[in-house]
Design brief:
The complex is a heterotrimer. Chain A is an alpha/beta fold. Chain A folds into two domains: 8-108 and 191-359, P-loop containing nucleotide triphosphate hydrolases (Rossmann fold); 121-189, no CATH class. Chain A has 13 helices and twelve strands. In chain A, the strands form two sheets. In chain A, strands 6-7-8-3-9-10-12-11 form an eight-stranded mixed sheet, sandwiched between helices. Chain B has two domains: 2-106, no CATH class; 109-331, Orthogonal Bundle (MetI-like fold). Chain B has helices at residues 2-34, 38-43, 49-59, 65-78, 106-141, 146-160, 163-177, 192-226, 229-236, 241-279, 284-294, 297-325, 327-331, and strands at residues 80-84, 87-91, 98-99, 104-105. The longest helix of chain B has 39 residues, at 241-279. Chain B is built from 13 helices and four strands. In chain C, helix 3 (124-135) runs parallel beside helix 5, helix 4 crosses helix 5 and helix 5 (170-182) runs parallel beside helix 6. The model of chain C is unreliable at 1-10 and 343-348 (pLDDT under 50). Classes of the chains: A alpha/beta, B mainly alpha, C alpha/beta. Chains in contact: A-B, A-C. At the A-C interface, helix 7, helix 8, helix 9, helix 10 and helix 11 of A face helix 5, helix 6, helix 7, helix 8 and helix 9 of C.
Chain lengths: 359, 332, 348
């Protein structure tokens, strides 16, 4: 995220990646699913953005939207309605020719998926799949591409990479498969790397290895990284900036340090209160968020979080239930934004007096 | 992979022996169960008692079943002499038996008719695979479109209509009505063109039924595969959509198609009998029908064995293809 | 693991509710046409522990450590290969289906996946009331009234008696599973990953519910999970498992503040912590590689292939689970407190 003033719609931004008012809606028999409903953010090269949210918050739909994957291969399915702007390195992707976006996919922007076993083709060797990813974007012979694949497998820490390249995904362990997946994503030196729950399917000791690897690789390649996860611990490990999503919208975003030290949105408080923490004194009880995540077909009017918010009645006149709060800068901070009807003073008081002491 | 092939080949030989034994056992048991004289069955209805007695000696029908089986199997490898009742008949290698009804060796009959049935089956198989798989893929990619609905309606009809109906219908329309393609079966070596035109209608008739099933199977499988994570990965790599479909999705779609193909090649004999009868093709199916009518037991036995061998070999080929496609089969 | 001769630390320890000794479960692997046994998955290989009435024993470990198999063994959903399980002093190791029936009232299980463990064609009332029918019991006031009371107990609306599982969210379904487990007033509840399929904000609801129910009904829990933070929050004592063995068994606070087994230390250091300020200054132990296969586990100490402290003795001899401090047992030749049995060469 940058501090530069936002350019007008349709004008290229200064940031490497800028998403403006992204909306992704899916028509279904039950109604329109508003998976992403007006999301904006910026990301510079060399920085890591953590997008945090629960299931159905729209975080994965956002990542596939940036990759342009909601518009290809939708055979006979009802077309997703997508609007907004996605600027990547000075190019606007939503209005670009689909084949141009395809050529950016895998080369300038690459993605790591949650479950590396199902995300790799079971019938092709790991090496062949990486070679393929390289040769789509580079006009080289198989031998050169294979050399590159083995080099990458070596870089991500796979022992005997020359031999393992000829193995199939099912012959790899879970951690090794995720390393191979990362090698495949990095083979073209992408400038934007999107990791969608990259460690959720892994054991904790392997998770630590993979998070370490992603951090090292980012320092080495200097790319922009988006890490999507439900785990606040994982974002705290990696992210410079954090964006919290709820019901298809951003409810809070800002530098990681600030979001963790002085979170501004009651939903972020709820997430922090729900997590048992290994780094603090034992608390007697967790502070859960009541109720369940909203349906994306019938998003509650006003603030989507209001039905679950313990402070929904703090602002006067039931405004929380009638009017949607806009994302507004938090006074006295650098780039920290929150979408909440409570005043900054009210939020500061509740956080210091009621929430922070119980965490 | 090599060890896998050797293992499979070994299994095929064992399988063929078992099939022969079971088939032989059934044909040995039939006369016992029906309480009729086996020799009478082997010779047909009108025969004088001396001939029957001669046949009984020639076939060694008094021997235990395993001895008879041994004579039969060794006959395949080294030929066999049927002697008894003062006369002797020699049956050349490979001897699959001797028909006392038509007074000839079984093998030459099978050898003449096998190419007809193979031509019919192979051609129909190619046709239905191409037609079924292409229709299925296009239907999947255009799900819900007019094409998809039309193709699936035709496919439903194809699955439901029996061969003699579609066969007679096509004969009536194309051959009698329009005067096309009314050629008889001609050997490929003699004239490839006439061989082809003589078989076009039977091919289409036989393939129609299977193509319909394969179109439905391919469509359903393709739709499922398109939802797989690795298809999304392929797109995320920046592959062109034709590569995503043609390489990544097709490879997975072919696995269940092959599995079903292995089973269908076995069931094909039934379809071939109907088709050969409808189109008057001089194939094994027709021979089998005739042999059953004539109660020519040695010929029925021979046809059954050839059909069984064809099923076993077809399954071997499918299993090997399966291993080529899916590394998890090969490596486990 | 009760500690003999420590009267000052705790009063006379109550008789254990569940006593497990040398518990082993091997799943045979067969090969070829003749189904010859070519090996075995050594899922659980010699567990010994007690569960005391009223406490929560947490069992933690990575995939393949055998924790779920252990849960299914002590609830006797699986037949043990060897060892002994005693419930309230009664040997239940090899009880058959009929023999287990009365036990089923006292021992209940909660499963991970609230979606697949509920029959979608049955109403909530039928699901929660099933244990009464299976046991042939009519509770006071009738089944329906009792089921509605149970639904209220786990925080569901008793009027939803006639709804189907798909009408509920994931967290509510897990509550249905809990209500079903509590129907017969069990003494021991074994929960296998009860919250790992749930969203973070819902996890906390279920954790708190389990907590309240324990207090209210005097339940004893064995909670199996891979999440060390959750385990720390819910447990009184914790067993850390690695490849079918317990490597460390201790009260909560010493385990988390001063772990004795290198594996426990590595696990704890690997947990991501929601505090970006800490990431620069924390000490993290990165283990090499993955967990080895339980089909051919390493010799000696099973952790030695990934352990930075491993010496020659570790590959040779299996360390026994020894109580090094009151309430703290560890199976290691080179434990973290320096009482190094391997270095002394004194292997018991």
């Amino acid at each position: 995220m940058t501090t530069a003033p936002a350019p007008a719609p349709g004008q290229p931004p200064a940031a490497f990646l800028e998403v403006r008012d992204l909306r992704i809606h899916f028509p279904t028999d039950d109604g329109l699913v508003r998976s992403v409903d007006g999301l904006s953010f910026r990301l510079d090269k060399g920085r890591t953005l953590g997008i945090v949210g629960e299931s159905g918050s729209g975080k994965s739909v956002t990542s596939l939207g940036i990759m342009g994957l909601h518009t290809v291969g939708q055979y006979g399915r009802r077309r997703a309605r997508i609007s907004g702007e996605i600027w990547l390195d000075g190019k606007e992707l939503m209005s670009a020719d689909p084949d141009e976006v395809r050529r950016l996919r895998g080369r300038e922007m690459a993605m790591i998926f949650q479950d590396p076993l199902s995300a790799m083709h079971p019938y092709f060797t790991v090496g062949a799949q990486i070679v393929e990813a390289y040769r789509v974007h580079h006009d080289v012979d198989k031998k050169t591409a294979r050399k590159r694949a083995v080099e990458l497998l070596d870089r991500v820490g796979i022992p005997q990479p020359d031999r393992r390249a000829d193995d199939y995904p099912h012959q790899f362990s879970g951690g090794m498969r995720q390393r191979a997946m990362i090698a495949m994503a990095l083979v073209n030196n992408p400038e934007l790397l999107i990791a969608d729950e990259p460690t959720t399917a892994l054991d904790v000791t392997v998770q630590a290895q993979i998070l370490d690897l992603i951090r090292d690789l980012q320092q080495e390649f200097g790319s922009a990284v988006i890490i999507i996860t439900h785990d606040l611990g994982v974002v705290a490990e990696l992210a410079d900036d954090i964006l919290v999503m709820y019901g298809g919208r951003c409810v809070e975003r800002g530098p990681a340090e600030q979001v963790f030290r002085r979170p501004q949105h009651p939903y972020t408080w709820g997430l922090l209160g729900s997590m048992p923490r290994i780094d603090r004194e034992q608390t007697e009880r967790l502070i859960p968020v009541k109720g369940s995540p909203p349906s994306l077909i019938n998003v509650p009017p006003g603030c989507a979080f209001s039905p679950r918010c313990p402070y929904a009645d703090v602002p006067a006149d039931g405004i929380t239930r009638s009017e949607r709060p806009e994302l507004a800068p938090v006074p006295g901070t650098d780039r920290h934004h929150a979408a909440c009807h409570m005043t900054h003073e009210e939020r500061a008081r509740i956080w210091t007096e009621e929430i922070a002491p119980k965490l | 992979m090599f060890a896998y092939i050797v293992r499979r080949l070994f299994a095929v030989i064992v399988m063929l022996l078992v099939v022969t034994l079971v088939t032989f056992g059934i044909f040995f048991a039939i006369p016992k169960l029906t309480g009729s004289d086996p020799a009478l069955l082997y010779v047909g209805k009108q025969a004088d008692p001396e001939t029957i007695e001669g046949i009984r000696q020639k076939l060694g029908l008094g021997d235990p079943v395993l001895v008879q089986f041994w004579h039969f199997v060794s006959g395949i490898v080294s030929g066999r002499d049927y002697s008894g009742g003062g006369t002797s008949v020699h049956c050349d290698v490979p001897c699959f038996g001797y028909s006392f009804r038509t007074e000839q060796d079984i093998w030459p009959v099978l050898k003449d008719r096998l190419p007809v049935t193979l031509s019919l089956a192979a051609g129909a198989c190619v046709l239905w695979l191409l037609g079924g798989v292409i229709t299925g893929v296009v239907s999947a990619l255009k799900r819900g479109s007019l094409w998809d609905r039309a193709a699936m309606t035709v496919a439903l009809a194809g699955v439901s209509l029996p061969i003699y109906f579609t066969g007679l219908l096509s004969l009536a329309v194309f051959s009698y009505g329009l005067g096309w393609l009314d050629g008889e079966y001609v050997d490929f070596a003699e004239s490839p063109g006439e061989w082809f035109s003589g078989l076009v209608l039977p091919w289409i008739t036989l393939a129609f039924l299977y193509a319909a099933m394969y179109a439905r199977l391919t469509r359903a499988t393709m739709l499922e595969i398109l939802g797989e994570d690795y298809i999304r990965t392929a797109r995320a790599k920046g592959l062109r959509e034709p590569v995503v479909i043609g390489k990544h999705a097709m490879r997975s779609t072919m696995t269940p198609v092959l599995t079903i193909l292995g089973m269908d090649l076995g069931a094909l004999v039934g379809g071939a009998i109907l088709t050969e009868t409808t189109f008057n093709l001089p194939g094994l199916g027709q021979a089998a029908v005739k042999a059953i009518g004539d109660r020519d037991l040695p010929l029925i036995l021979g046809v059954t064995l050839i059909a069984a061998a064809a099923v076993v070999l077809a399954n071997l080929v499918v299993d090997l293809l399966y291993a080529v496609i899916d590394p998890r089969v090969r490596l486990s | 693991m009760t500690i003999p001769g420590q009267p000052s630390a705790s009063p006379e320890p109550a008789a254990p509710l569940l006593k497990v000794e040398g518990l082993v479960k091997h799943f045979p692997i067969t090969k070829g046409l003749l189904r010859r046994q070519s090996g075995a998955v050594q899922a659980v290989d010699g567990l010994t522990f007690d569960v005391r009435p009223g406490e929560t024993l947490g069992v933690v470990g990575e995939s393949g450590c055998g924790k779920s198999t252990m849960g299914r063994l002590i609830t006797r959903l699986l037949e043990p290969t060897a060892g002994r399980i005693e419930f309230e002093g009664r040997d239940i190791t090899h009880l058959g289906v009929a023999g287990m029936r009365p036990m089923r009232r006292d021992v209940q299980m909660i499963f991970q996946d609230p979606y697949s463990s509920l029959n979608p064609r049955h109403t909530v009332g039928t699901i929660v009331g099933a244990p009464f029918r299976l046991q042939g019991i009519t509770p006071e006031g009738g089944v329906k009234k009792e089921v509605q009371r149970l639904l209220g107990l786990v925080g569901l609306n008793p009027e939803h008696y006639n709804r189907y599982p798909h009408e509920f969210s994931g967290g509510q379904r897990q509550r249905i599973g809990i209500a079903r487990a509590l129907a017969l007033k069990p003494k021991l509840v074994v929960a296998d990953e009860p919250v790992s399929a749930l969203d973070v904000s819902i996890q906390a609801q279920v954790v708190n519910l389990l907590d309240d129910l324990q207090e209210e009904l005097g339940l004893t829990y064995v909670i199996i999970a891979h999440d060390l933070s959750v385990i720390r929050h819910v447990s009184d004592r914790i067993a850390v498992m690695y490849l079918g063995k317990i490597v460390e068994l201790a009260d909560r606070s010493p385990l988390y503040t001063a772990p004795l087994h290198p594996y426990t230390r590595a696990l704890l250091s690997a947990v991501p912590v929601p505090d970006p300020a800490r990431r620069a200054r924390r000490e993290r132990i990165l283990l090499k590689g993955d967990v080895p296969s339980p089909i051919s586990p390493p010799s000696g100490c099973r952790f030695h292939t990934r352990c930075w402290k491993a010496t020659e003795v570790c590959a040779r001899e299996e360390p026994p689970l020894l109580t090094l401090r009151p309430g703290h047992a560890v199976a290691c030749h080179h434990p973290e407190d320096g009482s190094d049995s391997g270095a002394r060469g004194a292997v018991t």
